[in-house]
From TrEMBL:
Keywords: Methyltransferase, Transferase
Example of a GO biological process term: methylation
Gene Ontology molecular function terms on file: methyltransferase activity
CDD domains linked: AdoMet_MTases
Keyword Secreted: no
Protein name: Class I SAM-dependent methyltransferase
Residue ranges annotated for the Methyltransferase domain, each copy included: 39-125
A Pfam family the protein falls into: Methyltransf_25
Gene3D superfamilies: Vaccinia Virus protein VP39
The species this protein was found in: Microbacterium testaceum (Aureobacterium testaceum)
Length: 200
């Protein structure tokens, strides 16, 4: 979907598309970190950026959908986040940050996109990426059905260079209680999660 299609989806939603909380694995990893500067890539209607801001992070929420960003900015705490309309292929932060998070960013060039956002992580900083795994199709989980844009642990590992230590890169099963949609979905889903730290 392009930006115009996402704008249409957000405008048609009743208050937002995504759940109000970030994925459980993102909460688990980032809760153990000291707050600093962060970028939430493909922030959508803002759930991860808002969650981080509530915990003291100075957060930028990046998305190419102006409608999604408008929903995010209108949510409680929305004024604590710097909302930026931009494309992950072209936008660049003014300086590296302590944390870069990307949830469910699926593109034809996903490996290149992950490699690009990894460059935004400061030395000693953390990269967290989570998205639908290719095995999610067979599992019947919610999400894209095109394997060309889905993740595998091998794809995400291969997107990083020698500057990163990979602490975790694996498939995880997310229950319907940890649904990404605001209205939930009945089936469990298979994701890939990457947790890496840039060397100092």
């Amino acid at each position: 979907m392009d930006a115009a299609q996402w704008d249409e989806r957000y405008r048609a939603s009743a208050g937002g598309v995504w759940a109000t909380q970030p994925p459980a694995v993102v909460r688990e990893i980032t809760a153990a970190l000291s707050a600093g500067t962060a970028i939430d890539v493909a922030t959508g209607d803002g759930r991860t950026a808002l969650w981080l801001a509530e915990r003291g992070w100075r957060c930028t929420g990046l998305d190419f959908s102006s409608a999604g960003l408008a929903l995010a900015a209108a949510r409680p705490g929305g004024d604590a986040v710097d909302w930026v309309e931009g494309d992950v292929h072209a936008w660049q932060p003014a300086a590296p940050v302590d944390l870069v998070v990307s949830c469910y960013l699926h593109l034809p060039d996903s490996a290149a996109a992950v490699s690009r956002i990894a460059a935004w992580v400061a030395p000693g900083g953390t990269l967290v990426v989570v998205g639908h795994d290719v095995d999610n199709i067979a599992a019947g989980g919610h999400g894209p059905s095109d394997p060309a844009i889905l993740y595998t642990p091998e794809l995400l590992r291969g997107a990083l260079d020698e500057r990163f230590d990979v602490l975790r890169c694996e498939r995880v099963t997310r229950s319907s209680a940890d649904a990404e949609l605001r209205d939930g979905h009945p089936a469990a889903a298979v994701d890939t999660v990457l947790h890496a730290v840039r060397r100092t």
